[in-house]
Each structure stands twice: as C-alpha cells, then as structure tokens.
C-alpha cells in the first residue's frame, strides 16, 4: 500500500489521475474502518487533510461552498444558521470524536444509503463540485447517488466542495435508530421549505438502495400548503404528505429494523417534520427567512 | 514509512510504519504508549480517544500518515509527568496520586472507574468537554459529549458524577 | 480512628494507575513478542477437506503455521468439559483447532505465528481451507426438532435434559396443583441471545524460560489458578513449572471464566515449542464469533393460583440454546430452573429443561447466568396473574413472599453447587415497601392519567429476584506483615474491575487495625497464591473477603501474642490502632506492628537496623527455649480459607417508568429505581457501581442487544456498529436504596453483589412497556421496530 500525501489541490488531482485506484482519505471514519476490519485494502491512500483550501467554506451569493475537508463539528459550529438541515443531520452523525473528523464530502464519497448528510443535501438541492485534471464539473445531488455505496464520480475525480444553498425557510432533519447515540439510521428524513419559490424539498435516507427525494410528496405539499395566508397545517395534508414520503421508500428488512416499521416511521417523521417546519414558517422563525442578509461570517477556515 | 509527530509535548518519530496503520497502532506498538486502548477498531467505543492538534479523535480512525507533523496528546500526557505515581503495576495501589489532572482526580473521587479499559478514552473526552464548557455542563450535555465512549461496567452514572465534580472544582474559565 | 474502614466508601486503590494510562492489560504486555492469529471457519457447519498453506509460506516474517494434525498428546484431545453433571448425557466440547468438522462460524482451524499481528493476519488471508458445507442447525425450535444434527452422535440435538420437582404442601404434584387451582394461565416466553461483551476481549501472552524449563503465562481470565492447572495438564508440565498471572483485566462478566480457551493452551504450547515469547489478542469480531454468548431460551409456563393470586402450582418447560458446545456444562439452565422461584413460595413446582445444540457460538454464563431468564419468567407470571385477577401487581407479589420469620427457607431444590436451595436471610416485604416509596408506586396512576391527557403513554413495572451468591467450594487468603510495617494480602481469585484491591484492603485494614495505605493486595497471580476457584457467581467478596478476614485474625492473634510478651501484658488487654499494638486504655505502652514483625522472625544476619533487633544476640532470650517456639512459624503471616456450607442469598427489587412514543414506538426510560440487599456493605460506592453497571447491561439486554443469526448460521451483527450496547445517552439515572440483612452464614455477614443489577431488568422493562401499551410483552429484547410489529398484530 502507498500513502500519498499531496500538499496542494493540484498535486492531489495529479496523483488521483496517475493513481485512479487510490482511495481518498479525509476523516478516516469510513476508510480506516474498512482497513482495520480487513474488509478491503486499498492500493493507496490519498490523504487530503494537508490541503488547506479543502478546510475552507465560503459564501458565494446564495450558496455556501463547503470545502471537502470541513468537519461536521465545524459545520455545526459555524454554519448552523445558514444550513440548518445539514447542521441538524451533522449533529446526529456518530459521536463528538467522529464529528471532529468526518466530513460531508466523505459521506458523499462513501455513498452509504444510511449516510446522515444525504437527506438534507437532497432537500436543499445541493450540488457536488467534482474535479479532476480534466477540469471541474457540477453534479446535482439528485444525480450523484448511483447505487448502494456507488456514486457518480469518475475514477480520476475528487470532491472539491459541496455547494448548498443558504436556507430560505425552515429546515428539519430527523432520524430513528434503535439507540439514541452513535446509531445508524433505521430511517431518516429531511425537509426544506423553499418559501420564496413556494416549494418543498425532501430527502429520505436508509429506506432505499440510494438516498432519494420524495417527489410526489414535495409536489403535493407545495400545492396544498397555504403559502400566502400561512393558515395552520391541515392534519390531513400532513398525514397525506407522510404517506407519500413513505410511498417513495423501498425499504428492506435487516438487523436494524423491519421494512414495515421503516415505512411507518418514515411517514411519522415526515408528518412531524412538515408540522415543525410549517409552524416555523407561520411564526416567521426558522432559518434565515430574511433571505440571506443575516449576520455571520462569509467564510471560515481552519 | 517514517512518521514524525509530537506526542505529549515531545517530538518523536516512528519507523517502519505500514501505510495502512492507524495512529493507535503507532502510539501503542511503536511509541510505547499503551494508554489509549483498542476495543473495536471502528470508532464506536472511544477507548482510543486522543487529542490530535487539540481536537479529540478516535486514534484508530486516523491513518498513521495523517499524523505527520501534528501534535498528539494521550491520557499519559494529561497528568504531570514529573510526579510518578506510586504503584507502577497492578500489584500496587497507593492512592496518593500527585500530579493528576482535575478530571482524573474527579474520576478517582467519584468512583467512576471499574475495569478501567474505557477510562483513558473517557478521561480525554471529559477533559475536552470541560476545556470547552462554561461552568458545569448540563446532564444532557455531558451525556451527549460522552456518547461516543462505551463503558460496559459503570452504567455511566459515576462517570457523570465525576465530570460534574471536575467542572465544579475547575470553576468558570478564566 | 482511620482504620475502621469496613462499610466506608473508600476510594479505589486501583484507580491512580487506571486513570493515567498506566494500567497494564494483556495487550499492553509483551512488546516485541511474536503474534498469533487464527484462520476461523466461515461456515456454521462444514467438513474440512484440506488446508493449503503454500501461498502463506511466502509471507516475510512468518514463523509457524499449525493445524490440528500438529497438536501432540492431550493438546489434540477435545477441550475439557469443566462442570460435568449426570443430566448432561451428551456433553460435547471443541478441539483447540478444529478436527474434521467445524460447528460454528468463528471456530479456530489454523493458528499462524508471525513477527507481528499484521503479518500473521496477512498469512491467514493466504491460507486456503477447503470445506464441504453441511446443513447448519440454527434456531432453538429447529434444533429441538432434530431434523439435522450438530453432532452426529447426539440424537435430537439434546445435550441435557433435567426435571426437578417439588410437591405442594399436601404432597400434590405441580400438574395436579395447576389442574385443581381455581385459576390457570398458560403462555410462552422468549428471551433472545446476548453476550458479556467486555471492552477488552480475551488475550494470552506466554514466556517460556528454556533454562529454567518453566512457563509464565499472562491471560485475561477470571481464573488464573485453573488456567494454570489446565495448561500444566495439557502441556504435560509439572505444576510448579507453570505460573499464570491475570494482569489488569478489562471486564469479564462471565466469558473469561470459561477455560482453557483454545488460545490459552495453544499460545503457551507454541511459545515453548518456538522458544519465543508469543502473544494473541482477540479482536472484536473474534470476540463476537469465537467466545461465548448467553440468554437464549424459550419457556412454556402453566400456573395455577387462588383468588388472591397465591401460587398453588407452577410448571415450566425450558428450551435452552447451548450453541455448538457445552464446556461449562449446564450451569445456566440449572440456575434458571432454580432461581426462577425468586422471593416466592410457589406451592408445587415442576421445572424441566432441554439443552439443545445449535450451530452457533457456545453458550456459557453471562452476568446473571440464567437468572435474568428465570426472573423474566416468574415476574411475567406475576404480572399476568395480577392482570387476570385485576389486582395490583405488587399485591400479588406480596401475597407470595417468603416471610422474614421463615428463614432459613428451604425451596426443596438442588442449586448450581449441588447443595440444597436454602435461603439464609432476607426481608422481602420491607424491600418492596422501600421500592414502592422510592418510585412512587401508589401515586403512579394519577401520573399516568395526567400523561394520557397530554397524549403521552407511560407505564410502570416492577421485578423481584433472589440471587444465590458466593458459591463454593472455597477461596483462600494470605496475609503477611513485613518488618517495614506493610501488610501484603493475596488471594487467588482474579479481578476484572470489581475493586478487589480496595475492598480486600478495607477488610484487612479493619481486621488488623492498620492504615489502609500500608495494605497492598494482589489477586489472580499464582506466584502469590495457588489455591483458588475464580471470580464468578458474585462470589469474590463473600469467598475471598471472608478468607482474608480469617487469615487476618490469625495474624492478629499472633501479633498480640508476640507483643504481649514484649510489653509484658496479657494479650487479651491489647488492641491494634493505626499499626500500633497497645494496652487498651494505655496508649503509651505500645509497640509498632513493624517491630512485632521483626520479633516474629529470629535472624542470624543483620542486614539493616530493623534486622539487627531480631538477631540472636539482640535481646533477652530464654536459653531453654528454641528461637522459634514449638508450634510457631517464623514471620508474621497467616493463611486461611473460607469454604461455605452453601450459598448465601442476596435479593433485590427494581422498578421503572417508561414512555413509549405512540407514533414511532420509540421507548424511553424515564426513571429507574433499585432496592438492593447484599447483607453488610463493605464499600457502598463500589456496590453502587456494581448495581449501576448491572442495570446498564440489563437495559442493553432489554432494549438493544441481540445476536442476529441468519439461516446459514452467520452472525449478522458482529460489530459494535450493529450490536447496540448502551451509551451514556441510553442509561437513566439509577435511584438506589440499600437494605442490609446480614448473612448468618459467614463471619463478615456479607452477600454477593456483582451480578445483581442485571437480573430483573428485562422483566421490569417488559412490565413497564406492557403497562404503557396494554399489549402483552412476552419476548425480549424489544426494539421500536418490534413494538411496532406488536401494535400492528394486536
């Protein structure tokens, strides 16, 4: 095995082009588990932690450009107001020690259906910024997940950053696990109200081979919510929304839970999340509903 | 490969490191610091928690090469090294431990240790919690902060007592 | 007075080294030793066709590869069946390395020795074992069906079958009593598998001294003396040439009482053969698939009772899953069968168990050792009776209690030590009263109604148990006071975190009247104490604690005798305080224990000032007496043993309040209360810690932990990612109250406390969930997914 230690992003891209079989390693929270448990021995490890720009995030217009090396802990600490859904999901990732190392980009690289970042990224219309020596490209999140633990990256590509729109309305993430801490989701759900566009974003985790949106539920809710009058949420609408979200899932029975439970729980999570988000919307609270003029830094690095 | 790093304030180097090796293996097997423990090798138990550049991490999930040029503090580095504790082996046990950090002293006073295998990781993680905390953290905050450290013996109650005790003794941050 | 330490929450003397990273566990020893690794069966049931090691031979740093064919003499025989029993008609144990057949995933097939663990595992990966896969037997009822066999020569997969029967007061059988009872219930209960899962797995490190032809072995074990005897026997070494040391041990909970593990004899064998230090440390997956599991029972219950809920007859049939082998005999189902009775008088009782083989990891005791299953059975029975009669659940229990004036109370059964099941002391009505007060039992209905008004579901549950602790045959203690005034205590049993160094020092300091700082304690080191049984069955404090107290009393008596002579006083007038022997009421007439120790050992050579005082010319000695009087021994030391007639019975009662989410079926423990009676407390802080830890393991077993096998016998959740043990976020504060009814059976009046906490938790939480949900909970553990399934099927 080789340990490749690029100093710059350009060097990293060169190395990945020369050694497409090299496994990028950031927080190590997936890669090292595989090695430690002898589940696979990569030909080479490409350590991305020395590259300073990966540890930076910046605000570019209405979008946060989240460097591939920004840890969950920093995301929670520095970006909670602007990316509330993703920050909530980040809080549920592993333990403090894991959050101190793990990154959203790493979650994308592993592309596990149970990854906690995926539902809010889907709900928020995130875009993955991939790059290789051939150039950079933007991959809409909906096109990123291609199968169980597979993604749309080409062998020579690395994730440079994830672009996540600043919240324009309330966002929520919730998940169910058998245990409270350190738990892999039995199912998870994220919602984002895109108030200005009168649109609802969703993301469903752990309930299908890939993370996915619940498109029918989004369209139903967008049409039935009283955006102008902000009247209270009709319980029937919330209930139907939950059913439609559950209908978008294709769960399985496994050691973590039964498919029937996953479907049921997903409907509950979705119904509740819509309720919380709508209540925030009516109250004019929730994330950054002032459309981006809120305080806070415009960049961060470590 | 060779890995250069600073451990507990001392610059050091490990040789013949395998590229897929973890920082935990380097500390235990190559640098003679067995304080951090190996219980799961997948970041679930927290027994190998150490500081990496001031941030608590699971040493089993840090590739050895990622520690190049960085600063590591282990449980061995939290107590004052110049005051050797009585009882170097399992056969002894004078409880007069000078040089203990407040967190360690609180674990002792609260009876927060049983088999002790998870203790080094918990001591480091509790140390990190209190370094950040403003006053005595809430019960929920302590539980959340320790939610990556498995203990099979204590039921956690006396560990929580120890964290509160240490926080009280440390007082508000300057 | 600082020496009266019995009963005080003394700080643990183990901790300074453990909180600073200076503890020494197995894997912290033997830097530079060769490493062993094992090729283990990937199949639950298969015939080994061939083993091809040719590719592995190329691994740089490889030292040796061994299969069963390489094992000599007794090493090639099956591992010992440690606890034979007449009912275990078909006991079976594994070979140290599989011979022809593998019977569970994880069974060791090949041992590899290499320069380090990485290289050993590299070599393992290159060894190709050819298998003919056989039909695996998975699941209790499938195994009992007997369509396929785990062992060809064990018909029906039944390893053991035992019936115990106690007639009712009128001589009626349990069947007759149930049939004649005014009310009857019949039901089935299921308890799934779990496991001890200590944070530190097993491990062995062996050093062969070729010049001395002796072996020193370190093992992460609960019984170093017995490991020593097993190694000597298996390797054909004289016992004095083998020493076994249990270093700091990172938890045991039962799994490390089993011995010798294959690795415990293979590693010393190879170390001697290679004349090199050799170490093996178990990794987490190995621990899941190649150590032991427990729990795992199906119970069929028939009970008859009167209008007050008093039991008239109880019949229980138990199907017990023993996994692939029975090295520890049938201790677990015997304990279930007997301890099921709890604090109750059950009228006529009949219990029958069949212990069946399956192609899964073997089953041996895990903290509680069969009691959690038994208590689940009895306490679910009590709740069902209460529900049937519409009575308060605590009333029904109280109606059946053994009363305080009925001790000693003979349950009429044979316990796990082969002795009659006779409860020595207890006060169950008082314990229940305390518990009800602690949890607020009587006001709970209003609390529940208030919660219901808010759309919340909460429920309360209670569970009682009696635990036989401190089983024999014996433990010993050795106490020596040296001429520096230090007290050296040793006992043969081992420690895995129970604080033995502290509680035994408390006992010694109290008995001898010395400051605890002068006392040091060594456990589990055969170099210091060779006769012992081990640490299990909540026995260490009772057994070694009393043995050490008795040894101290011998030493004290001798010290007083010598001091009396020096002080020209009557020994009966002497006391020891703070390490000084003095005349009661006259502190100035005193002599330090250190000096007594000097005087106890007449010397020829004066190597220091203290020694000079003991030489033959130092003081007045009578010419007509030998320097060491007849019947005396030099030195101020003593050794004694404690061997009880039978176990002493601790008891406890737990209650919990839980909340279940009406939508997601998530389960949350709101409160957990414990009343615990382990006789006189030596160190309340340590006892509380034992209870908390036990409850936490119980919560794990009730809500999170299970072993998920598929139909091929693959364990699907063999990692900490999917075997869900509780973190600090899962365990509530545990409210604890102590009741102390001393045991009349031992000098210190103590009872065991180690296992207690875990025993009733599944029963208590099942009861609380049942109360919240109104759905019978007959199977544990229960996850939100399981509860959802129950809700849908009602």
From TrEMBL, chain A:
Pfam family, one: FAD_binding_5
Ranges where the FAD-binding PCMH-type domain occurs: 1-169
Keywords: FAD, Flavoprotein, Oxidoreductase
Entry-linked SMART domains: CO_deh_flav_C (SM01092)
InterPro entries assigned to the protein according to its UniProt record, in alphabetical order: CO_DH_flav_C, CO_DH_flav_C_dom_sf, Diverse_Substr_Oxidored, FAD-bd_PCMH, FAD-bd_PCMH-like_sf, FAD-bd_PCMH_sub1, FAD-bd_PCMH_sub2, Mopterin_DH_FAD-bd
Organism superkingdom: Bacteria
Protein name listed in UniProt: Carbon-monoxide dehydrogenase medium subunit
Phylogenetic lineage: Bacteria, Bacillati, Actinomycetota, Actinomycetes, Streptosporangiales
From TrEMBL, chain B:
Annotated ranges, domain 2Fe-2S ferredoxin-type: 1-78
InterPro entries, per the entry: 2Fe-2S-bd (IPR002888), 2Fe-2S-bd_dom_sf (IPR036884), 2Fe-2S_ferredoxin-like_sf (IPR036010), 2Fe-2S_ferredoxin-type (IPR001041), 2Fe2S_fd_BS (IPR006058), Beta-grasp_dom_sf (IPR012675), Diverse_Oxidoreductases (IPR051452)
Protein name: Carbon-monoxide dehydrogenase small subunit
Keywords (A to Z) from UniProt: 2Fe-2S, Iron, Iron-sulfur, Metal-binding, Oxidoreductase
Short name of any one Pfam family annotated for the protein: Fer2_2
From TrEMBL, chain C:
UniProt xrefs under InterPro entries: Ald_Oxase/Xan_DH_a/b (IPR000674), Ald_Oxase/Xan_DH_a/b_sf (IPR036856), Ald_Oxase/xanthine_DH-like (IPR016208), AldOxase/xan_DH_MoCoBD1 (IPR008274), AldOxase/xan_DH_MoCoBD2 (IPR046867), AldOxase/xan_DH_Mopterin-bd_sf (IPR037165)
Segments for region (Disordered): 615-640
Keyword set, alphabetical order: Molybdenum, Oxidoreductase
Pfam families, A to Z: Ald_Xan_dh_C, MoCoBD_1, MoCoBD_2
Domain Aldehyde oxidase/xanthine dehydrogenase a/b hammerhead, first and last residues per copy: 20-135
Keyword Ribosomal protein belongs to the record: no
SMART domains for this protein: Ald_Xan_dh_C
PANTHER family, per database record: ALDEHYDE OXIDASE 1-RELATED, XANTHINE DEHYDROGENASE
Record protein name field: Dehydrogenase
Protein source organism: Microbispora amethystogenes
Organism lineage: Bacteria, Bacillati, Actinomycetota, Actinomycetes, Streptosporangiales
């Amino acid at each position: 095995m080789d340990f490749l230690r690029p100093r710059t992003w350009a060097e990293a891209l060169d190395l990945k082009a020369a050694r497409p079989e090299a496994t990028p390693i950031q927080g190590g929270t997936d890669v090292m588990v595989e090695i430690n448990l002898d589940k696979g021995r990569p030909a080479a490890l490409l350590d991305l932690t020395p590259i300073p720009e990966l540890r930076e995030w910046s605000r570019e217009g209405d979008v946060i450009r989240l460097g591939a090396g920004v840890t969950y802990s920093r995301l929670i600490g520095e970006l909670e107001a602007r990316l509330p859904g993703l920050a909530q999901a980040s809080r549920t990732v592993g333990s403090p020690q894991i959050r101190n190392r793990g990154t959203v980009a790493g979650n994308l690289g592993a592309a596990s259906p149970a990854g906690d970042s995926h539902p809010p990224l889907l709900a928020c219309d995130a875009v993955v910024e991939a790059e290789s020596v051939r150039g950079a490209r933007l991959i809409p999140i909906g096109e990123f997940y291609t199968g169980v633990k597979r993604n749309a990256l080409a062998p020579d590509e690395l994730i440079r950053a994830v672009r996540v729109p600043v919240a324009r309305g309330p966002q929520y993430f919730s998940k169910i696990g058998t245990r409270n801490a350190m738990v892999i989701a039995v199912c998870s759900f994220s919602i984002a109200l895109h108030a200005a566009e009168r649109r609802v974003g969703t993301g469903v985790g752990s309930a299908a081979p890939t993370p996915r949106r619940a498109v029918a539920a989004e369209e139903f809710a967008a049409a039935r919510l009283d955006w102008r009058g902000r009247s209270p949420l009709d319980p029937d609408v919330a209930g139907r929304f939950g059913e439609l979200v559950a209908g978008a899932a294709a769960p399985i029975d496994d050691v973590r839970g039964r498919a029937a439970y996953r479907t049921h729980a997903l409907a509950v999570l979705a119904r509740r999340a819509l309720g919380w988000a709508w209540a925030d919307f009516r109250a004019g609270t929730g994330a950054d509903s002032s459309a981006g003029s809120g305080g806070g830094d415009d960049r961060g690095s470590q | 490969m060779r890995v250069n790093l600073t451990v507990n304030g001392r610059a050091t180097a490990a040789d013949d490191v395998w590229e897929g090796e973890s920082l935990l293996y380097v500390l235990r097997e190559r640098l003679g610091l067995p304080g951090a423990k190996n219980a799961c090798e997948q970041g679930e138990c927290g027994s190998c928690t150490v500081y990496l550049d001031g941030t608590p991490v699971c040493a089993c999930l840090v590739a050895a090469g990622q520690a190049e040029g960085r600063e590591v503090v282990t449980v061995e580095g939290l107590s004052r090294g110049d005051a050797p504790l009585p009882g170097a082996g399992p056969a002894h046990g004078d409880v007069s431990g000078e040089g203990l950090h407040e967190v360690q002293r609180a674990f002792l006073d609260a009876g927060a240790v049983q088999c002790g295998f998870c203790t080094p990781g918990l001591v480091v993680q509790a140390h990190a919690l209190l370094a950040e905390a403003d006053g005595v953290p809430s019960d929920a905050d302590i539980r959340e902060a320790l939610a990556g450290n498995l203990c099979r013996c204590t039921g956690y109650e006396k560990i929580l007592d120890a964290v509160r005790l240490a926080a009280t003794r440390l007082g508000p941050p300057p | 007075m600082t020496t009266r330490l019995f009963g005080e929450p003394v700080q643990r003397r183990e901790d300074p080294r453990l909180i600073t990273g200076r503890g020494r566990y197995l894997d912290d020893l033997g830097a530079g030793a060769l490493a062993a690794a094992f090729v283990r069966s990937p199949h639950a049931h298969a015939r080994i066709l061939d083993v091809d090691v040719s590719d592995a031979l190329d691994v740089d740093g490889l030292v040796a590869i061994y299969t069963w064919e390489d094992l000599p003499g007794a090493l090639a025989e099956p591992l010992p069946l440690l606890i034979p029993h007449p009912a275990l008609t078909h006991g079976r144990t594994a070979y140290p390395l599989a011979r022809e057949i593998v019977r569970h995933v994880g069974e060791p097939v090949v041992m590899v020795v290499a320069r380090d663990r990485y290289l050993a595992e590299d070599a393992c990966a290159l060894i190709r074992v050819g298998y003919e896969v056989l039909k695996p037997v998975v699941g209790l009822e499938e195994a009992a069906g007997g369509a396929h066999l785990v062992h060809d020569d064990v018909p029906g997969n039944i390893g053991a079958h035992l019936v115990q029967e106690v007639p009712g007061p009128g001589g009626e059988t349990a069947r007759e009593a149930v049939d004649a009872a005014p009310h009857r219930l019949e039901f089935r209960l299921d308890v799934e598998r779990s496991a001890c899962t200590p944070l530190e797995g097993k491990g062995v490190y062996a050093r062969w001294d070729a010049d001395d032809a002796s072996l020193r072995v370190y093992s992460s074990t609960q019984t170093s003396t017995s490991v020593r005897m097993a190694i000597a026997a298996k390797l054909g070494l004289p016992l004095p040439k083998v020493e076994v040391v249990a270093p700091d041990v990172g938890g045991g909970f039962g799994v490390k009482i089993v011995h010798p593990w294959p690795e415990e004899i293979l590693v010393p064998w190879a170390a001697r053969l290679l004349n090199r230090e050799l170490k093996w440390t178990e990794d987490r997956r190995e621990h899941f698939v190649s150590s032991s599991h427990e729990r795992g029972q199906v119970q069929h219950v028939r009970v008859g009772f009167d209008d007050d809920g008093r039991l008239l007859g109880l019949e229980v049939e138990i199907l017990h899953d023993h996994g692939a082998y029975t090295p520890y005999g049938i201790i677990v189902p015997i304990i279930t069968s007997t301890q099921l009775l709890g604090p109750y008088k059950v009228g006529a009782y009949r219990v029958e168990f069949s212990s069946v083989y399956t192609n899964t990891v073997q089953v041996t005791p895990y903290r509680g050792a069969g009691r959690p299953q038994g208590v689940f059975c009895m306490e679910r029975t009590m709740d069902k009776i209460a529900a049937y009669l519409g009575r308060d659940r605590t009333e029904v229990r109280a109606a059946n209690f053994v009363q305080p004036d009925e001790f000693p109370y003979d349950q009429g059964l044979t316990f796990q030590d082969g002795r009659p099941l006779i409860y020595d002391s207890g006060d169950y009505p008082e314990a229940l009263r305390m518990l009800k007060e602690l949890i607020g039992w009587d006001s709970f209905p209003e609390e529940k109604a208030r919660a219901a008004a808010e759309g919340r579901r909460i429920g309360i549950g209670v569970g009682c148990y009696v635990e036989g602790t401190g089983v024999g045959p014996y433990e010993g203690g050795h106490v020596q006071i040296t001429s520096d005034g230090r007290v050296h205590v040793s006992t043969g049993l081992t420690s895995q975190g129970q604080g033995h160094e502290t509680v035994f020092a408390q006992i010694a300091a109290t008995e001898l009247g010395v400051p605890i700082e002068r006392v040091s304690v060594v456990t589990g080191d055969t170099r210091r104490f060779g006769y012992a049984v081990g640490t299990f069955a909540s026995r260490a404090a009772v057994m070694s604690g009393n043995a050490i107290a008795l040894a101290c009393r011998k030493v004290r008596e001798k010290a007083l005798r010598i001091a009396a002579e020096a002080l020209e006083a009557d020994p009966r007038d002497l006391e020891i305080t703070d390490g000084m022997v003095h005349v009661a009421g006259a502190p100035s007439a005193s002599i330090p224990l250190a000096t007594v120790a000097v005087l106890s050992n007449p010397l020829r050579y004066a190597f220091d000032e203290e020694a000079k005082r003991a030489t033959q010319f130092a003081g007045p000695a009578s010419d007509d007496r030998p320097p060491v009087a007849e019947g005396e021994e030099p030195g101020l030391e003593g050794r004694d043993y404690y061997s009880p007639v039978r176990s002493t019975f601790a008891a406890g009662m737990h209650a919990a309040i839980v909340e279940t989410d009406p939508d997601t079926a998530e389960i949350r423990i709101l409160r957990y209360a414990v009343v615990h009676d382990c006789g006189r407390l030596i160190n309340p802080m340590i006892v509380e810690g034992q209870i908390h830890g036990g409850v936490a393991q119980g919560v794990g077993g009730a809500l999170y932990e299970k072993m998920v096998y598929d139909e091929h016998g693959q364990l699907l959740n063999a990692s900490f990612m999917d075997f869900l043990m509780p973190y600090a976020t899962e365990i509530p504060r545990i409210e604890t109250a102590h009741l102390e009814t001393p045991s009349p059976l031992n000098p210190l009046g103590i009872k065991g406390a180690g296992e207690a906490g875990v025993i009733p938790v599944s029963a208590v939480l099942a009861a609380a969930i049942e109360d919240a949900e109104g759905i019978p909970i007959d199977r544990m553990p229960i996850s939100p997914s399981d509860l959802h399934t129950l809700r849908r099927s009602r």
